[in-house]
C-alpha cells in the first residue's frame, strides 16, 4: 500500500512538472538554460558550480548529475524520486542520432535517460550487484623445482612423457581468509606491494580462479547480490582489465572499440527499433566519454609502431570493457608505465563512468598520488595476502592513527599506508598519544588481527551474516531482489551476441585489415617467393632427371620452412586471442576459420610466384594439366603444414618450446619423407611415421605427376638436443662408409645436422632479441649504455650456452655414428660445429636488429636458410654449379662448415695412418649395366663433392672472420639503425 501511494504521488508530481512545460535545452557557462512554452527568452533556473575536469575528458558525465539536480530544483518540495526523474527525462528527451555531436552535445543526460528507459524495457542493461566475499582464501601447492627448470624444454617434456611422476611440493597461501563488501556504484582502491595478492584477489572476484587437481584450493564464498557464481554468468556483469594493453597495433582506436562493440552487442540492425540508430553511434559515444575522439582514427601502436600515447592506449583497454555493458570493473595495476597525469585522467574517466551509469570499479594501483586517491570512495589494503584494512577512504588515516601511526603532511597517504602495512613504517610511529601498554602492530599478521577486531570489520561481517541469514531482508530489499531477478534473467541469454556466420565475417574483416596493413610482411613473403623461385630455377635449369627427387624434396622443404614462420606470427597475437575469447567476443571456431580463410590469398600468391618460375625453368613436365595438379598439391600441403605449426604455437607454453617442437617435427617429416631414407629401409618401429607424414604424401604425389627414380642416397639428420640425437643415432648406429650410398648418407647426416641445428638457433634467437630491442632503444635514449657494450653482451651471453649445447649434441652423435675415434678429430669437429651454430645465432641476432619487426625478420631468416641449404655443397655439389652463380657459395656459412666437417671425418688419408676413414675403399655402383668400381673415400669426396682436407684450416679462419664481421654488423646496426617509430 505504501508503494502504491508513493507511485500515485510521483504521478501527481510528474503531472505538475508537465504543466510547467519546461524544456531543458543546454548547459552554458555553468548555468542551466530553460525555455517555457511560448517564451522567446531563455530563463536561468539555477547556477551550477564549476567542476574541474581534464580537457581530454568528456563534459557529458559532469553535466548529467548537475543538470538533473537543477531540474529537481524546479519543484519547491523534496528532490524528485529516481523513478520520476526517469519519467521526466524520457518525456522531455528525444534521440537525434544524426551524428554523435547531436546525440551528446548539450544533452548527454537525455541520451542516458532515454537509453536507460528503453534498456529497462528491452532488458538491455545489466544491474550493478553488491559483491560479498566471506572467508575468501586461495592456496596453491607449488613444485619445489625452480621456475627456470620447470619452464625449460626438459621440464616440459617430463610433464608430457611422465605425467604420473610425483614431485615434491610446497604449500603457499596466496590469500588468507578475508571478508568484505564491494558496494554498488562505488570506487574501491586496492593498495599493496607487489606479490601481496592483489591480482589473485581481483581474479577471484572475476570468477577466474577455481580449485583444480588438488594443486589449487579456493575456499570461502563470493556472492553477487546474494547469488553464487554458479547461478549467473559472471562475464556479463564483471570485467577484468589486465595490467598489459594487448591490442593489434595496426588497428585504429575506433576499429578496436567498434570490433568489441559488434562482438559484445551484435549488429545495430538487430537492436530494438527505438535504439537502432543510437546503437550505430555506440562506439562514438564510448570514444567521447573516454576522451578518445581526437585520436579515434590513429592506430593503437605498440612498443615499436608509433600510435596513441600510453594513457590513451589504457583508455582503449577500458573502452573494450565498457562497451560490453558490464557493471563491475576490476582493474589490475592500470597505471603501469604511466605518469601521474595520465593515471589521474584514466581514473577520472572511470569515476565519471561510475557516477553516470552507477557501476562499480575496483582498481589496484601502485603508489597513486593524493589527487588520484581522492577519487575513490573505499580503500582495501593487502599485505602478504592478508586483509589489513577495508573501509571508507576518509577513515583510512584515522584508523592507522589509532594503531599508533601518524601520516606526516609531506607523505602521500597511499605510500604511508602501504609502508606501514608492510611492516616498514617504523618512522611513522607516534611519539606521544599512545595508550599505555598498547603495542603497535609491526607485522602483516598483527595488522590483520588488529583490523579483524576493529568495529569497521565487525560491522562488515555482521552485514554479510545478516543478509545471508535474513535472505536480504534490508531496507533495500526491493532493489536487491530486482537485481537478483535481472541477473538470473540475463544469465539465460546466449553466451555470444552474434551467430557463427556473423562473428566469422567480423573476424574476416578484421584479419584482412591486419594482414594488408602489415606491408613489410606481405611484401617480404612475395619477394622471398620470387627470389627463391628464380634461384631454384637457375640452379636446377634443365637439370638431369636423376636428381628430380632431391629437387622436389627441397621445394617441399622450402614451403615447410616458410610455414615455420607461422609460430612467430601466432605467438604475437595469442594473448589478444586469449583475452577476447575469455570475454566471449567470439567462438574459437570462428577465429580459426577466419584466420585460415584470410591466409588463402597470400598463400596462393606466394606459392604461385615460386612454383611457376621454378617449375618451367627446371624442365619438369610441360603439360598444363600436370602443372595444375602440381600447384594444387603445393597449396594443400602449404595449408596443412601451416595449420600444424599453428597448432604447435597453440599448445606450447612459450615460443622457445614451440620452436623446439617445430624443429623436432621438421626432422621427422623430412627424415621419413621417402627421400632421405628409402621406405624399404625404414625400421619397422618407424614405418607409421612414413604413412602419417604430410611431407611424404606431398612428395609421392608430386613425383607421380613428374618423374620417379629411387636415389642412391640414404640420409639421416639430427636435431638440436641430445635426446633427439640419441633417437636418430639408435636408428643408424655405426653406419659404415663401404658403399657410395653409405658415404652419401654420412655427408647428408652432417648436412642435416648443420641445417637444423643452425635453423633452431636462427629462429629461437629472434624472439629474444626482438623483445630486448625495445628495452635497448628506451634505455639507450636514457643514456644507460651505448650499442657497443650491448652488442658485446649479446655475444657473451650466448657463448656458454652454445658451448654446452654443441658439446652435448656432438658427444651423442659423434660416438654413436662411429666417426674417427681420436681426440684431435673429435675436438676439431666440435670446434667447427660450434663456429657454425655461433654464426647462425649471430645471423639471427643481426636480422632481429636489422628488420623492422619479428615477422619480417622471420621471413628474412627463412630466405637466408634457403641460401644456406642450396649452396652448402650437398643438394647441388660445388663441382656441378655453373660459374655465373657458383660464386655465391663463398658467401654462405654452410659451404665452409660442411666441407670442414666432412673432410675432418672422411677426407684424411695420410701414408702414416692407413686406418683413417679417408683411406677406406668405397664400392661405387654405376647406373644401368655399367660395372661397379672401387675408389678411395678421400678421392670419392673430391670427385663427387670437391671437398679437400687441406681447406679445413682455411675454412676455420673464414668462419671466425664471418663471426667477427657479424658482430661488427650487429654493433653498427644498433648504432645507426632504429625502428622505433614513436
UniProtKB/TrEMBL annotation:
Family annotation (SUPFAM superfamilies): P-loop containing nucleoside triphosphate hydrolases
User: What InterPro entries does this protein map onto?
Assistant: AAA+_ATPase, ABC2_TM, ABC_transporter-like_ATP-bd, ABC_transporter-like_CS, ABCG_dom, P-loop_NTPase, PDR_CDR_ABC
Q: What are the protein's UniProt keywords? A: ATP-binding, Membrane, Nucleotide-binding, Transmembrane, Transmembrane helix, Transport
Q: Select a single GO molecular function from the record's annotations and give it.
A: ATP binding
What GO CC annotations are associated with the protein? membrane
Cite the Pfam families for this sequence: ABC2_membrane, ABC2_membrane_7, ABC_tran, PDR_CDR
Membrane-traversing stretches: 520-541, 585-616, 628-648, 660-679, 685-703, 715-736, 748-769, 790-809, 829-849, 856-876, 956-977
Q: What is its main location?
A: membrane
Query: Where in or outside the cell?
Result: Membrane
Q: How does it sit in the membrane?
A: Multi-pass membrane protein
Return the protein name: ABC transporter domain-containing protein
Organism in which the protein naturally occurs: Globisporangium ultimum (strain ATCC 200006 / CBS 805.95 / DAOM BR144)
The organism that produces this protein has a lineage beginning with: Eukaryota, Sar, Stramenopiles, Oomycota, Peronosporomycetes
